[in-house]
């Protein structure tokens, strides 16, 4: 007889139960989520605001150091002429002869705002003798413009008739004149930048009597803030 043996089946391994947490208290609440979102938005806003402030500060710094920087005005003596010398006889000087000095002075303003000046004077010398003095009225040189002034001065020949080299200069037909021009004013840029500047210019020129041209024109300028 054939005997059948019953196979032994292995016992099932001990199983571990898997538990799925179902505790809703572990999840963040709606208020916490909203606070986190608000906090992130505040951080972004603060970062953007700080970046804008830094960029604006850099732009203003560049502008104030370049475009808005107050620059010193420039003055120039364009020419000097003496009317009445053509008919003067060097060998027969008439002391009460009236002469007229015409000086053309320009003020160049390189700023983006007007340069308002006052207390401007021009003195003209011949051999260190003052032969003409003019007080220039207050004026206003507009931004990036040049303001020109024509000054007329009257003087009598007797002021310089005692100068030893006068006869020789009249004979050769030329006079060496020196001039001093002083201007003081103020530049105001957008009511924030205010700069008071004093400019002085000393010039020497040789005036040709025949055609009233100027030669050997040299100037030295001084700026006092």
TrEMBL record:
Residues 1-30 are annotated as: Disordered. This is Immunoglobulin-like fold containing protein. Keywords: Membrane, Transmembrane, Transmembrane helix. Gene3D superfamilies: 2.60.40.1820. The chain crosses the membrane at residues 45-68. InterPro entries: Lea14-like_2, LEA_2. Pfam families: LEA_2. Residues 1-11 have a biased composition (Basic and acidic residues). Residues 105-204 form the Late embryogenesis abundant protein LEA-2 subgroup domain. The keyword Transmembrane helix applies.
């Amino acid at each position: 007889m054939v005997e059948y043996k019953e196979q032994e089946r292995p016992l099932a391994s001990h199983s571990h139960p898997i538990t799925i947490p179902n505790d809703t208290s572990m999840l963040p609440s709606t208020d916490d989520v909203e606070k986190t979102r608000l906090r992130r938005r505040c951080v972004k806003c603060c970062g953007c605001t700080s970046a804008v402030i830094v960029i604006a500060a850099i732009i203003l710094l560049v502008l104030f150091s370049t475009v808005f920087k107050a620059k010193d005005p420039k003055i120039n003596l364009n020419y000097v002429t003496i009317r009445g010398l053509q008919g003067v006889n060097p060998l027969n000087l008439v002391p009460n002869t009236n002469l007229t000095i015409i000086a053309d002075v320009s003020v160049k303003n390189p700023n983006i705002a007007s340069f308002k000046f006052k207390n401007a004077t021009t003195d003209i010398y011949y051999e260190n003798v003052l032969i003409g003095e003019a007080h220039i009225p207050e004026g206003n040189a507009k931004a990036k413009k040049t303001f020109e002034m024509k000054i007329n001065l009257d003087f009598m020949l007797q002021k310089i008739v005692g100068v030893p080299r006068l006869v020789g200069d009249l004979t050769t037909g030329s006079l060496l004149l020196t001039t001093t021009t002083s201007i003081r004013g103020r530049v105001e840029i957008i009511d924030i930048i205010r700069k008071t500047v004093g400019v002085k210019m000393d010039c020497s020129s040789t005036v040709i009597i025949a055609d009233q041209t100027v030669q050997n024109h040299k100037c030295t300028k001084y700026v006092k803030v």
